[in-house]
Amino acid sequence: MLEDVKPLHTPPQLPPEDLPLDKILPDEPLLLMGAGPVPVPSKVAAANSVVINHLGDTMGTIIERVKLMAQYVFQTRSRHVLGVAGPGSAAMEMAISNLVWPGRRVLCVQNGLFSSRFAEMARRVGGETTVLNVPLGQPADPEAVKALLAQERFDVVTLVQGETSCTVWNHALPEICQLAKARGAQTIVDAVCTLSTMPLPMDEWGVDVVVTGGQKGLSSIPGVSLLVFSNEAWESIENRSAPMPHWCLDARLAREFWQNKGYHYTAPVSGILALHEALRLICLETLPARFERHRLCSKALQGAILAMGLTLFVDEPARLNSVVGINVPEGVDANAVLKQMSSRYRVEISGAFGLNLVRIGQMGEQARAHNVLRAVHALGMSMQSAGAKLDVPTGMAELERGLADAT
């Protein structure tokens, strides 16, 4: 009898005990100086508290402004600016899902964890994937890319500008993009940690797709990301005959909202408002001034780290300025360092994915003199507490010298 069947799990009869957010969050917010997310300016935070109609005239004006400002930040004249409700990885997957389908050949230049995601995503949509594994801590070699492009025909080449996981900068990105274009391949570039922190002129370098998240270089909130397709990439999307496996990530459907003021899905309106303010602040600062601020702060940080007696994971010129990898000395527990920094100094930095490193971000609001000073002091003192033999005063003095021209 059906009435004799008892459910395997009895649903709760009473709501759970109340636990408000102010009982979970720390009394004093941590200074976020890790690999992301980053601190957001007050105007970005305020915009993120507003909810409006996602299909109204006001939102239409905001979307037009976001696209206009994005063209400046991406340095492109392409009209194919799209957003996606999701992290930077969602923007990566949107790029892959629209340009890769069964039978398309993809060359994935792989420096670490995040560049490896391109290969995984390409396989999942049926792409025939070849991986160029770059030695750990090294940048992509354009000669190695050139050799593979000469051996086989590829439709798409993927790579990152900055590999956040191991703090490597692919400084030969412009040359690699030109090599791919000469062979008829389209390039997809992950610029999640680098866009607006260092030059990436999309049109000048011939990049076909640039993807970024909100929560790193742009100094916005996590959960809303941007990507731009070149005219050539968009033509490939328009002409594809293979079924599109993703509905939310279908660029042709997303165009209805981002280009035609139509409906795709309910947009993350608060996140888009926050992104609007983040882009506006970048435009007010201007890219040249922003690039120089990031360069000065990161170089001062790196100089201070070396001066106090620590070493950096990546050598010049492949060292990424946006996220700096610091070797943990032998006998020092990285977790103890991170815990001491957050509990005593209220500064949070990042560990690494299986590497004996800690990582300090220099993206957006992280690249401010007062934030760098606090982070370096917290790192030095916490390393000492964990057993490292350091000269913290010398490091701080070097940092002061390096930051003399920073703001």
SSE order and pairing:
Elements: E1 31-32, H1 42-47, H2 57-74, E2 80-85, H3 88-99, E3 105-110, H4 113-124, E4 128-133, H5 142-151, E5 156-160, E6 162-163, E7 168-169, H6 173-182, E8 186-190, H7 202-205, E9 209-212, E10 224-229, H8 231-239, H9 251-258, H10 269-285, H11 287-307, E11 323-327, H12 334-344, E12 347-348, E13 357-361, H13 369-385, H14 392-402
Parallel strand pairs: 1-12, 3-4, 3-5, 5-8, 8-9
Antiparallel strand pairs: 2-10, 6-7, 9-10, 11-13
Describe what this molecule looks like in 3D.
By secondary structure, the chain is an alpha/beta fold. It folds into two domains: 42-285, 3-Layer(aba) Sandwich (Aspartate Aminotransferase, domain 2); 287-404, Aspartate Aminotransferase, domain 1 (Alpha-Beta Complex), CATH 3.90.1150. The protein contains 14 helices and 13 strands. It has helices at 42-47, 57-74, 88-99, 113-124, 142-151, 173-182, 202-205, 231-239, 251-258, 269-285, 287-307, 334-344, 369-385, 392-402, and strands at 31-32, 80-85, 105-110, 128-133, 156-160, 162-163, 168-169, 186-190, 209-212, 224-229, 323-327, 347-348, 357-361. A seven-stranded mixed β-sheet has the order 2-10-9-8-5-3-4, sandwiched between helices. The chain has a two-stranded parallel sheet with strand order 1-12. A two-stranded antiparallel ribbon has the order 6-7. Helix 3 runs parallel beside helix 4 (113-124) and helix 13 (369-385) runs antiparallel to helix 14 (392-402). Its cofactor is pyridoxal 5'-phosphate. Substrate binds at residue 359. This is Alanine--glyoxylate aminotransferase. Belongs to the class-V pyridoxal-phosphate-dependent aminotransferase family.
